[in-house]
Write a structure and sequence with these properties.
DNA-binding, homodimer, alpha+beta, elongated, about 110 residues
Chain lengths: ~110, ~110
DNA sequence: ATTATTTATCGTATATTTGCGATAAACAAT
DNA sequence: ATTGTTTATCGCAAATATACGATAAATAAT
């Protein structure tokens, strides 16, 4: 499923898409790398992570498709970095999500 | 993969597990329901969501396994609610994650 | 004991994800 | 033109996820 049906709200589907992008430890690690190094090349990620180049490339593709990162060509390399606009969108989607539910929590008993 | 290898940090794997729990719109919708209704029964969710009872039950099982919700038996029903401790853990994991990366963003150029 | 209600589980089909070797594509340097 | 460097894509196998009908399990009500 590509989360494009009419059965759920667009916001729910968008959040599910972002969550899916974050749902693998390699992709979390890649995003942390990009955050800490500001930008970096695919090869640097391959050197650090314990997975093959083809696999890294595939994860990068998924992250790109989610919108959370972007790549710019600097032949023969590709420089990756976080996509600020979508990053903030995701950040606020998640923030609202946890918050909305947190309200109920703080109203209720704590144990 | 069950995200239990030694190849990634435990924190990254835990975050990936939570993200995976959020990676389907039906599960997002269920969590929103639980948040807004404080607690509710499986049947209420089945009535609201556009998916079969067996499917709802499966999603609830995954959410339970992620630790984000819990169920208590009130025969013949089961009352579901958010699990506050893990909810807050997840909330702060994600918050730190977005924040850590946000720092780099705010240091960098905005376009 | 039978029936009704509610939820979990089983079985199964289909789709998606993950991982990787092999190879292609894009380009720089020679 | 050939070679080297870097990254994407292809093809495949294995594992997971998704969805649902059928059925079981648990229990209340009769």
């Amino acid at each position: 499923m590509a989360y494009t049906s009419t059965d759920y709200e667009e916001e729910e589907m968008q959040m599910a898409r972002y969550a899916k992008a974050l749902s693998h430890p390699a992709r979390i690690a890649i995003l942390k790398l990009l955050a800490s190094m500001d930008t970096c090349f695919c090869g640097e990620i391959v050197d650090i992570l314990p997975i093959a180049q083809a696999t890294v490339s595939q994860h990068l593709k998924e992250l790109k498709e989610s919108g959370l990162i972007q790549g710019s060509i600097e032949p023969p390399k590709i420089r990756y970095c976080i996509e600020p606009e979508n990053w903030e969108k995701a950040q606020s989607l998640f923030s609202d999500f946890w918050q909305q539910t947190f309200i109920s929590q703080s109203n209720g008993r704590k144990a």
